[in-house]
Every structure is written in C-alpha cells, then in structure tokens.
Amino acid sequence: MSEQGARRGQEDDWWRQLYGEDGEDGGEGREGTGGGGAAGDAAQSGAAPAAGAPTGAGPADVGPAEASDTLDERVASVLRTVGPPGWGDRPPPQPTPADAPDRAAPAAPAPPDETPPRPEPARPAPPDETPPRPEPARPAPPADETPTPGPVPPGEPPARRVPSPPPPPSEPIPLKATGPGARPREVARSAPPPAPAVTYIGDRPPTYEAEPAALPAADPAALDELVPDTALEGAQYGSLTLRAASQRGDSARYRGDVRRDALLTARFGAGRHALILVAVATGRPAVEGAHRAARDACGWIGSAVGRSYTQLAEDIRADRRGDLKAGLQRLTDRSYGKLRARALERGGPPEQYTAALRCLLLPADPDCRTRVFFGVGAGGLFRLRDGAWTDLEPVATDHGTPDPIPAPIPVTDAPARPGPGLPHGPGTAEYPARPEPFLFHAAFGRPGDALLLCSAGLADPLRQEPAFAAHLADRWSTPEPPGLVPFLATAQLRAKGHAKDRTAVAVWEA
C-alpha cells in the first residue's frame, strides 16, 4: 500500500467521524445539531411535549444563530486568519449521499469572511550589504580520469567502469617570429601565368611545319656520312661562354633533305695557351654531296689551324693583326685547294663542290679578350651590346687571286712531290683556290658583350626582320648566358620566307 493511499484512507475516517456515520458519534452529533435528547425522542414517538417545555432548537436564553457553528466553519475561519490570501474562500467539500444517509439537510454555507488578509510585513533591506563572493569554479577532472564511485550497496553488482574517449587533437599553435629583424609575413600572391612561347615572327606562321617530317635517304655502304637533324655544343673558358647550335631548315625537314650546314668546335692545347676554333660551313644548294663539301671544309681548316695553333695564339695575344690576316688567308686558300682536288677525284665540277666557310679563333687566356674572325662566303658576324645589334661584317678588300700555284715539277724518274699545302693533280692551276674574297676582322670583347657568328640561314632574317632581331636581342641580353636548350629554342625562331638551314655560334663575355 502506497503512502498516497494511506493518506486518503485517513481523510475518509475523519469525515465519517465528523458527520456521525458511526453509532457512537451519531447521538452526539444529533444532540449538538437537533436540540435536547428528550425533545428529540418526543418528536420521534409522536407525543406532544409537556406544557412549559421549550420547542426551539437550542437553549432558551440564546437567540437564533445567524450561521451554523460547525467544525468546518471553524477550520475555514482559522485558515482565513493564518493562511495565505484566498485560502479560506474555498467552499467546503460536499459529502455524498452515501456518506450521510441519516442527515436531514446539510447546513447552509457560511458567508465568506470579508476581512482582508493580514499583509506580511516587508523585510527591511540590510544597509550596504556586500554581496557574497562567487565561489571559484572547480577545475574539471582530466578527460582520462573518471571520478571514483561511492560504496556499492550490498546485493547490487559493481558498476562497470567505461573508459572515457580520448580528447580531440588540438590545433597547432601558429609560431610568430620575434626579434628586431622579424617582419610580418606577407600573403603570397599568385604569380601571373607565363606568357606563351613565341614560335614564329610575322602575321601568320610559315608554310612548313616546325617539327621534322621526313628523314634523309641513307646509303647502306656509307652510313658514316649520315648527318643528324640538329647539333648542339657548349663550353666555358676563362671569361667567355660558348654556345653553338646547327639544325635543318623547315624546307629540308619537309622534303627529307640532309642538313647542308656543318659545325666544328675544337680546342687545341691546354691552359692559358689553349686556342678554341669554331668553324661553320654551308654547301651549295641543290647540289648532290653539298653536305660533304661543308664537312670537308670544316675538317681541313681545323687540321690547318691545329698544326699552327701555337703561333696563332701568340699572334693573337700580341695583337699582330697583319701577321694573323696573312697566315689565316694562306690556311684558307689551302683548304679550298683541297676541296677543288676532291671535286676532281669525284668527277664533278669544282665550282659545285665548295662551301661558304666562316671561323672564330678564341684564346682561352682570361687576360686576352681579342676575338678573331676570318672566312669566305655568305653568312653574318654581329655583336650584341646593351640590347642592340651591330653588324660587324667586314668589307671585302681582297679581290685578287690567292698565293700563286707552284709550277709543275719536270717529269723525271723520281716520284713527283706536291707543293706545300696544296694537292697535286690535274686541274690545280686552272681553278682559283677560293670562289669569293677573303674576310678578316679582329674584335675586342667587353664584359656583357655577345658575339654572334652565323650562317646565311640565320643572318638573312636577322638583317631583314626587325621583330626577329628584337626577339633575339631580348632573349640573349640577360645577366647570365642561356643554357644549351634555351639557346637552341631562341635560335630556331621561325619567320615566313626563311626556311634554310641555320647555324648560330654565340660567345658571351663575363
């Protein structure tokens, strides 16, 4: 039985005692509410009361009551006096007929007490009362610690300890540089996209494709005569940096022709006395075997310079330009004489088995900045200084014949001996040693200068196309010389109408 049910049963017993349902309390209740006992008995038996007996419901000295004086009214009066406002105004609970079957009529409800409730006295505020200090918050236990549980009641299983989950990883604290030289780090701005690479000059691209299309035909018996599409070379000695590149033109790449330009780079000697030779030769166009003539011209002039490099290097350091010009002219004439003799051996006309030849002599001595140019035929010699090109092509002054051919030796029993430096055979005295005038120029290199020696395939657009010359000047006017690949990419800039083979040799002065 619950506590609420027990309390309800006590209330029922109290009401029964109040309204006289029990036999013991019923008489007392009726006596208190209906008058004296004798009068009541007389009324029930039907006999008339005696003479002089009172007939009212109460003592004779008390007047009629204005309200019933019951226990409910007294309780309500007490509640109205000491209870909260409105508590005593509640009507008393009305008993059900089952609770009071023997009662004649319920008593009339008492009128509500109009006396206002007594107000509670207001508490005076304490003067200048200092508010209590808030208690400091206790630190929470660590995440990995669990509070110890209290004692377990008997008969109950102990609570299972569940491990707490690990705390989330904390974000790294950004480090801030301190010190006198520390500066706030600026937000990196995105770099602008690189400009598209320039592949040609002009309002429209050239007719031929930029990449090779067809390979030259090969002879199974002469595979050593094959010429690669592109040749690349580079070196650095003392104060100079060398870059050289030679490649087939767009027309030869499309038709499958062999490259007619030849390139030779050679070093003779060692240390400060070394001499570097760079030779560029171009065979005649539309002539069979023109690439062989260009290769022979480079090979023979290289052999001649290599045998005389010690004297040539001494003349360059001493700036003996007259001796240099005369000696180099003799070496050039002998090389062309060999070309002429080779043409006769092959059974072809000597005027076709020839080539334009242009050379540079570069001393490896860092204290010598004299650069010597010599050659025969078409091509170009330029200097790049302060972003501007200067054409250094010398004016031809030698229109005469080369050194006289020695007279034929009389026929004797002894074997014939060829003249010095020239081949001996038929036709030697009938053809000039070189087809064009000899060219010579000596230039002094200053720091920051770039000297460019090139074949006609690069010299023509450099002279005829201002945009072409401006692009090369912009690419090669850098504090540091370009690498081999960037140098080749700039040298192969295309221009409409210029599809020949091209060879470029550049020397940067530090």
Description:
- With 510 residues, the protein is an alpha+beta fold.
- The chain is built from 11 helices and 13 strands.
- It has a 6-stranded antiparallel sheet.
- β2 (230-237) and β3 (240-247) form a beta hairpin.
- The chain is rod-shaped and about 165 Å long.
- Residues 22-65, 97-107, 124-130, 142-147 and 400-432 have low confidence and may be disordered.
Q: Main beta sheet: strand number and arrangement?
A: 6 strands, antiparallel
What distance separates the N and C termini?
113 Å
Radius of gyration equals: 65 Å
> What is the global morphology?
rod-shaped
Q: Order of strands side by side in the largest beta sheet?
A: 2-3-13-11-8-9
- Class from helix and strand fractions: alpha+beta
* Contiguous helical run count: 11
Q: What's the total number of strands?
A: 13
Question: What's the quick description here?
Answer:
Helices cover 27% and strands 16% of the residues. It is of the alpha+beta class.
